[in-house]
Amino acid sequence: MQTNRQLILRRALKEIKDGMYVNLGIGMPTLIADLIPASIQVMLQSENGLLGIGPYPKAEEVDPDLINAGKETVTIKPGGCYFDSAESFSMIRGGHIDLAILGGMEVSGSGDLANWMIPGKMVKGMGGAMDLVQGAKRVIVIMDHVNKYGESKVKQKCSLPLTGSQVVHSLITDLAVFQFADGKMKLVELQEGASLEEVRSKTEADYLIDDTLLLNR
After folding, report:
1. What parts of the chain have a pLDDT lower than 70?
2. What's the domain count of the chain?
3. Residues noted as catalytic
Protein backbone atom coordinates (compact mmCIF):
# COMPACT_ATOMS: atom_id res chain seq x y z
CA MET A 1 0.00 0.00 0.00
CA GLN A 2 1.29 3.45 -0.91
CA THR A 3 2.02 6.04 1.76
CA ASN A 4 0.19 9.37 1.74
CA ARG A 5 3.24 11.08 0.27
CA GLN A 6 3.58 8.48 -2.48
CA LEU A 7 -0.08 8.91 -3.42
CA ILE A 8 0.38 12.65 -3.75
CA LEU A 9 3.65 12.52 -5.67
CA ARG A 10 2.57 9.85 -8.14
CA ARG A 11 -0.65 11.71 -8.91
CA ALA A 12 1.24 14.99 -9.34
CA LEU A 13 3.65 13.28 -11.75
CA LYS A 14 0.74 12.70 -14.16
CA GLU A 15 0.44 16.48 -14.63
CA ILE A 16 3.92 16.70 -16.16
CA LYS A 17 3.90 16.29 -19.93
CA ASP A 18 6.65 15.87 -22.48
CA GLY A 19 8.29 19.14 -23.50
CA MET A 20 7.20 21.17 -20.48
CA TYR A 21 9.24 23.73 -18.55
CA VAL A 22 8.42 22.99 -14.91
CA ASN A 23 9.25 24.60 -11.56
CA LEU A 24 9.14 22.28 -8.52
CA GLY A 25 8.62 24.19 -5.27
CA ILE A 26 10.63 23.76 -2.09
CA GLY A 27 9.80 20.70 0.01
CA MET A 28 7.73 17.76 -1.20
CA PRO A 29 7.48 18.95 -4.84
CA THR A 30 11.25 18.60 -5.35
CA LEU A 31 10.91 14.83 -4.79
CA ILE A 32 9.08 14.59 -8.13
CA ALA A 33 12.41 15.08 -9.93
CA ASP A 34 13.41 11.50 -9.03
CA LEU A 35 10.14 10.08 -10.42
CA ILE A 36 10.15 11.57 -13.91
CA PRO A 37 10.76 8.74 -16.41
CA ALA A 38 13.46 9.04 -19.07
CA SER A 39 10.77 8.83 -21.76
CA ILE A 40 9.48 12.29 -20.75
CA GLN A 41 11.72 15.18 -21.79
CA VAL A 42 11.20 17.95 -19.25
CA MET A 43 13.25 21.01 -18.29
CA LEU A 44 13.09 21.59 -14.54
CA GLN A 45 13.71 25.21 -13.53
CA SER A 46 14.77 26.61 -10.16
CA GLU A 47 14.40 30.27 -9.28
CA ASN A 48 17.95 30.53 -7.94
CA GLY A 49 19.20 30.10 -11.52
CA LEU A 50 19.09 26.54 -12.86
CA LEU A 51 17.43 25.06 -15.93
CA GLY A 52 17.66 21.36 -16.64
CA ILE A 53 17.74 19.92 -13.12
CA GLY A 54 18.07 16.16 -12.90
CA PRO A 55 17.46 13.67 -10.07
CA TYR A 56 19.06 14.01 -6.64
CA PRO A 57 22.76 13.09 -6.81
CA LYS A 58 24.31 9.85 -5.65
CA ALA A 59 27.08 10.21 -3.05
CA GLU A 60 29.80 10.30 -5.70
CA GLU A 61 27.90 12.90 -7.78
CA VAL A 62 27.43 15.54 -5.09
CA ASP A 63 28.60 19.01 -6.09
CA PRO A 64 28.21 21.46 -3.16
CA ASP A 65 28.02 24.37 -5.60
CA LEU A 66 25.09 22.86 -7.54
CA ILE A 67 21.94 23.47 -5.46
CA ASN A 68 18.25 24.16 -5.98
CA ALA A 69 16.14 26.91 -4.40
CA GLY A 70 15.75 24.78 -1.26
CA LYS A 71 19.55 24.63 -0.79
CA GLU A 72 19.60 20.92 -1.69
CA THR A 73 22.34 19.49 -3.88
CA VAL A 74 21.05 18.42 -7.29
CA THR A 75 22.31 17.16 -10.64
CA ILE A 76 22.02 18.89 -13.99
CA LYS A 77 21.04 17.14 -17.23
CA PRO A 78 22.97 17.39 -20.50
CA GLY A 79 22.00 20.69 -22.09
CA GLY A 80 21.18 22.29 -18.73
CA CYS A 81 22.55 25.66 -17.72
CA TYR A 82 22.90 28.11 -14.85
CA PHE A 83 22.41 31.86 -14.69
CA ASP A 84 21.66 34.62 -12.20
CA SER A 85 18.37 34.87 -10.31
CA ALA A 86 17.34 37.99 -12.26
CA GLU A 87 17.33 35.93 -15.47
CA SER A 88 15.47 33.15 -13.68
CA PHE A 89 12.74 35.46 -12.45
CA SER A 90 12.46 36.96 -15.93
CA MET A 91 11.58 33.47 -17.16
CA ILE A 92 8.90 33.17 -14.49
CA ARG A 93 7.45 36.66 -14.82
CA GLY A 94 7.58 36.45 -18.60
CA GLY A 95 5.20 33.47 -18.64
CA HIS A 96 7.76 30.91 -19.85
CA ILE A 97 7.08 28.31 -17.12
CA ASP A 98 4.39 25.85 -18.21
CA LEU A 99 3.75 24.34 -14.80
CA ALA A 100 4.56 25.12 -11.18
CA ILE A 101 4.03 22.41 -8.57
CA LEU A 102 4.09 23.98 -5.11
CA GLY A 103 3.59 22.86 -1.54
CA GLY A 104 0.80 24.41 0.51
CA MET A 105 -0.08 25.22 4.10
CA GLU A 106 -3.68 26.15 3.26
CA VAL A 107 -5.82 26.35 0.13
CA SER A 108 -9.25 27.98 0.10
CA GLY A 109 -12.37 26.96 -1.77
CA SER A 110 -11.87 29.84 -4.18
CA GLY A 111 -8.31 28.83 -5.05
CA ASP A 112 -6.36 31.12 -2.70
CA LEU A 113 -2.99 29.77 -1.59
CA ALA A 114 -1.08 30.31 1.66
CA ASN A 115 2.33 28.68 1.67
CA TRP A 116 5.04 31.13 2.65
CA MET A 117 4.80 31.96 6.35
CA ILE A 118 3.17 31.33 9.71
CA PRO A 119 2.81 34.53 11.78
CA GLY A 120 5.20 34.56 14.73
CA LYS A 121 7.64 32.12 13.15
CA MET A 122 10.88 33.28 11.58
CA VAL A 123 11.11 32.88 7.81
CA LYS A 124 14.04 33.57 5.50
CA GLY A 125 11.77 35.19 2.93
CA MET A 126 8.92 34.49 0.58
CA GLY A 127 11.17 32.90 -2.05
CA GLY A 128 9.77 32.67 -5.57
CA ALA A 129 6.27 31.45 -4.73
CA MET A 130 4.52 34.80 -5.22
CA ASP A 131 6.09 35.18 -8.66
CA LEU A 132 5.36 31.59 -9.64
CA VAL A 133 1.65 31.74 -8.81
CA GLN A 134 1.31 34.79 -11.05
CA GLY A 135 3.74 33.89 -13.83
CA ALA A 136 3.38 30.13 -14.38
CA LYS A 137 0.77 29.05 -16.91
CA ARG A 138 -0.61 26.44 -14.52
CA VAL A 139 -0.26 26.12 -10.73
CA ILE A 140 -0.75 22.83 -8.91
CA VAL A 141 -0.57 22.60 -5.13
CA ILE A 142 0.28 19.35 -3.34
CA MET A 143 -0.20 18.91 0.41
CA ASP A 144 -1.67 16.69 3.10
CA HIS A 145 -5.43 17.11 3.42
CA VAL A 146 -5.27 17.74 7.19
CA ASN A 147 -2.58 19.06 9.54
CA LYS A 148 -0.95 17.16 12.40
CA TYR A 149 -3.92 18.03 14.65
CA GLY A 150 -6.42 16.54 12.18
CA GLU A 151 -7.69 19.95 11.10
CA SER A 152 -8.55 20.56 7.45
CA LYS A 153 -6.01 22.46 5.37
CA VAL A 154 -8.63 22.91 2.64
CA LYS A 155 -10.28 26.02 4.06
CA GLN A 156 -13.38 28.04 3.43
CA LYS A 157 -11.03 31.01 3.78
CA CYS A 158 -7.28 30.89 4.42
CA SER A 159 -6.25 31.99 7.91
CA LEU A 160 -2.55 32.40 7.01
CA PRO A 161 -1.06 35.23 4.92
CA LEU A 162 -1.78 34.65 1.23
CA THR A 163 0.77 33.84 -1.40
CA GLY A 164 -1.83 34.60 -4.05
CA SER A 165 -5.58 35.05 -4.48
CA GLN A 166 -7.45 32.60 -6.77
CA VAL A 167 -4.19 31.31 -8.26
CA VAL A 168 -4.56 27.54 -7.80
CA HIS A 169 -5.64 25.52 -10.84
CA SER A 170 -5.51 22.11 -9.19
CA LEU A 171 -5.05 20.76 -5.65
CA ILE A 172 -3.74 17.24 -5.00
CA THR A 173 -3.93 15.84 -1.48
CA ASP A 174 -3.58 12.36 -0.01
CA LEU A 175 -7.38 12.03 -0.24
CA ALA A 176 -8.49 13.76 -3.42
CA VAL A 177 -7.89 15.90 -6.47
CA PHE A 178 -9.74 19.21 -6.86
CA GLN A 179 -9.89 21.59 -9.80
CA PHE A 180 -10.64 25.31 -9.64
CA ALA A 181 -12.50 27.53 -12.10
CA ASP A 182 -14.30 30.86 -11.72
CA GLY A 183 -13.60 30.94 -7.97
CA LYS A 184 -15.19 27.54 -7.35
CA MET A 185 -13.68 24.22 -6.34
CA LYS A 186 -14.70 20.85 -7.79
CA LEU A 187 -13.80 17.38 -6.53
CA VAL A 188 -12.76 15.42 -9.63
CA GLU A 189 -10.88 12.38 -8.27
CA LEU A 190 -10.56 10.30 -5.14
CA GLN A 191 -7.21 8.89 -4.12
CA GLU A 192 -6.86 5.16 -3.54
CA GLY A 193 -8.69 4.14 -0.37
CA ALA A 194 -10.53 7.45 0.07
CA SER A 195 -14.32 7.90 0.02
CA LEU A 196 -16.63 10.81 -0.65
CA GLU A 197 -17.69 10.71 2.99
CA GLU A 198 -14.12 10.94 4.29
CA VAL A 199 -13.29 13.83 1.98
CA ARG A 200 -16.41 15.67 3.08
CA SER A 201 -15.66 15.18 6.77
CA LYS A 202 -12.09 16.48 6.39
CA THR A 203 -12.77 19.42 4.07
CA GLU A 204 -13.80 22.76 5.53
CA ALA A 205 -14.38 24.43 2.15
CA ASP A 206 -17.52 24.08 0.08
CA TYR A 207 -17.05 22.29 -3.24
CA LEU A 208 -18.87 20.73 -6.17
CA ILE A 209 -18.57 17.04 -7.01
CA ASP A 210 -17.91 15.84 -10.54
CA ASP A 211 -20.82 13.86 -11.95
CA THR A 212 -18.64 10.82 -12.68
CA LEU A 213 -17.86 10.39 -9.00
CA LEU A 214 -21.53 10.48 -8.11
CA LEU A 215 -22.41 7.99 -10.84
CA ASN A 216 -19.70 5.55 -9.72
CA ARG A 217 -20.62 5.78 -6.08
Report:
1. 1, 122-126, 217
2. 1
3. 47
